[in-house]
């Protein structure tokens, strides 16, 4: 069984800066893990990053409202969402998805 399970809930497209309809990222792990979430533009630059921890048996939701790390609204386009999990056992897992932004 894989360490990380991830679901992107609708919408897969977020209205940039919307405070009511974020992209909802839901993830769970099979063992305690450190989590890193990164959103990149198509040039490979990180526009948003978050780190935390997760415990097995819990679903954790992380919402993205189409804003960068400075809380500025990002440009229209396609963004790459990556979530990485690192367990204390040394096991690593990651998942990458695409998310669209419209103004």
Outline of the structure:
By secondary structure, this protein is mostly beta strands. The protein has one domain (4-102): Immunoglobulin-like.
The CATH C-level name is Mainly Beta
How many strands, which pairing sense, and closed or not: the largest β-sheet?
5 strands, mixed
Q: Average pLDDT, to the nearest integer? A: 87
Topology, number of strands: 8
3D architecture notes:
The protein is mostly beta strands and about 100 residues long. It has a single domain, classed as Sandwich (Immunoglobulin-like), CATH 2.60.40. About 0% of the residues lie in helices and about 60% in strands. It contains no helices and eight strands. The protein has a five-stranded mixed sheet with strand order 2-8-7-4-5, with no helix packed on it. It has a three-stranded antiparallel sheet with strand order 1-3-6, with no helix packed on it. The protein starts with a strand and ends with a strand. It comes from marine sediment metagenome. This is FlgD Ig-like domain-containing protein.
